[in-house]
């Protein structure tokens, strides 16, 4: 996905607060109100293809963008940074692919903690919402093409 599109999509694992569990970043009482209603999908939200009510797009050296897969509604941007602490490179920035990998590992390893510690902003603060919508369209086309090619491979076998 990263090679083809330049970003990675990760489905959220936390359920909406109304369904008895926490949503993205809502791990304590009142956190949804505190961080903004747009940060957490509601229990009535439509789910993506794999049942996740929300997902993230991970860009290199840009905020992580939360959105609803069913409607493409942008929820928020989460600013996180993973500097290169090895000292082997003169710059403190990780290479693009390493930055995406670090965000992916942190998000899939401890989503609640990453979201809680990130600087949360409304969509459009650092990444143009038009770009994100185009990327969501590109992602849908990429998945459709992969689905078609996988179906053809299964038919041939």
Compose a concise summary of this entry.
The protein contains 5 helices and 5 strands. It has 157 residues and is α+β, with helices and mostly antiparallel strands. The longest helix is centred in the last third of the chain and has 28 residues.
Write up what this structure looks like:
The protein is α+β, with helices and mostly antiparallel strands and 157 residues long. It has one domain (2-156). The protein has five helices and five strands, in the order H-E-H-E-E-E-H-H-E-H. Strand 2 (55-58) and strand 3 (64-68) form a beta hairpin. The protein is globular.
List the helices and strands and how they pair.
Elements: H1 2-5, E1 8-11, H2 31-35, E2 55-58, E3 64-68, E4 73-79, H3 96-109, H4 111-117, E5 119-121, H5 129-156
Antiparallel strand pairs: 1-2, 2-3, 3-4, 4-5
Helix pairs in contact: 3-4
Distance between the termini: 25 Å
Biggest sheet details: 5 strands, antiparallel
The level of helicity is 25-40%
| Quaternary organisation of the protein chains | single chain
Alpha-carbon Rg, integer: 17 Å
- Count of β-strands: 5
What structural category do the secondary elements indicate?
alpha+beta
Average pLDDT number: 76
General shape: globular
Beta-strand proportion: 5-15%
Largest sheet, spatial ordering of strands: 1-2-3-4-5
Low-confidence stretches: 18-48
Number of helices: 5
Total number of distinct structural domains? 1
- Write the element-wise H/E pattern from the N-terminal end onward: HEHEEEHHEH
